[in-house]
Amino acid sequence: MPPAAKPSAKYSAACRACPRLAALLDTVRREHPDYHARPVAAFGARAARLMIVGLAPGMHGANRSGRPFTGDHAGILLYRTLHRFGFASRPESISRADGLELIDCSITNAVKCLPPENKPAPDEIRRCNRFLAAELVDLRDGAVVLALGGVAHRAVLLALGVPPRGYAFAHGAVHELPRGIALFDSYHCSRYNTQTRRLTPAMFEAVFERIAARLDPPRVR
Description:
The protein is an alpha/beta fold. It is built from 7 helices and 6 strands; from the N terminus they run H-E-E-H-H-E-H-E-H-E-E-H-H.
């Protein structure tokens, strides 16, 4: 019998459950008073048919702007691809005030706070998992979850109470999960992965082709 799903909790901008991350954000707010420098909420529709799960906010991206994948290199390929496949109203995400809207899609992270060197500790991933669990509860049955990287992949399984055995992360893999949810895997669209061509635009778009075929999503007109 699979383990029970992770107990869920709604997002809180005041969360300080991880001392190391809370201390880092305190320091960032002092050094960059114009930065968001707090837990970053999910962006998009709560009951979407597509949820994208990344790793954690980047220092000068979501941690600055307060919106996932906004203001750093990783968001360039992501939002351009979302727009091409009809999940975003425009191809660039600049700030929370730019008028960008997601269409039947949400974007979140496995860890809501900026981690040192972009590397959350295992206990921080587990502690934050209750927020991801709450976001997954809101998804429609039959939705698609796209995990960007192995940490996000494992966090989704943990949040749904699915044992990881038999669900290994691999770029392009698709895993059938409870409630009819399909977990798609992709390498993260980070600067390192795109510049080294571990992940190319064609590879990323191929994943979205399969997602679009499964969901038959609306297109921006």
